[in-house]
Amino acid sequence: MSEHAVAETLEQALQIVPVGEDDFQSVNLVDTGGYPLYGGQILALALRAAAMTIEPDRRPHSLHGYFLRAGRLGAPVTLHVDRDRDGGSFSARRVVALQDDKVIFSMVTSFTRGTGEFVLDAVPRLGRAYTQPPDKHRMLLLDLCEFTPRRQQGDRFFFPDHAEILPVGPLSDDWLTHTCAIAYMSDIGTGFGQLADPAIASTESSVSHSIWFHTPARADDWLTLEMWPTSASSGLGLYSGSVRDAAGNLILAISQEQLIRSRKPAPGAAG
Questions:
Q1: Cα–Cα 20 to 30 A to 206, which of 39, 107, 145, 259?
Q2: Tens of pLDDT, residues 215-246
Q3: Burial class (CB in 10 A: 0-12, 13-18, 19+), 210
């Protein structure tokens, strides 16, 4: 099979086309430089597919996705949506993303009219200090200013857990494009990125990703992503996070589970 088209802007990366009543296919995939497909793109495409089967007055309020197999750039992603329920207040959908007839990602998501007022924001704001303005660099069709930059210290690599993010290229004006773009951003980095615990060697592949949508926002202004570790046990690490706009409004709350390796004690070490 010939290589799938490569996205040059985030707008292109978010496009899908219908290939049946509840089936869709990706148009462009993000070049990850030889690594498996970026999970944030697959999650965003699944969210877009689900939303395209929903009444236009409803917006997503949560999603829970599972990364099952590594995706690759050489084949399109097919998305199948199951319409579990359309009630008076909520609509529920299940989505599977497939390559070569194998499921690489599955997701459940729910939509609502969202008639209530947002009255409480208890998600932590870490407000990390930095000594100099962060450098901007480009990664996965995003411009990032990393407040906790990636670095190497001995044999340990540290990755950003606090950054401002802006998409590459203009975005369409519709709410769905902006919502999917912010969901795409939410999978960048890791809450274990700055953890210096000597017992933890590194985090690896994402296992699951959950988002709770709070305040509608545009993705074409700088948004702030903060993440922090929650727990590590039995080969799995759980971290939490948030995305906020320039005014500090909570846009998304995030939880993600990753495979995590423990650092083995040196031969002859006590304990």
A1: 145
A2: 999 999 999 999 999 998 888 999 999 999 99
A3: middle
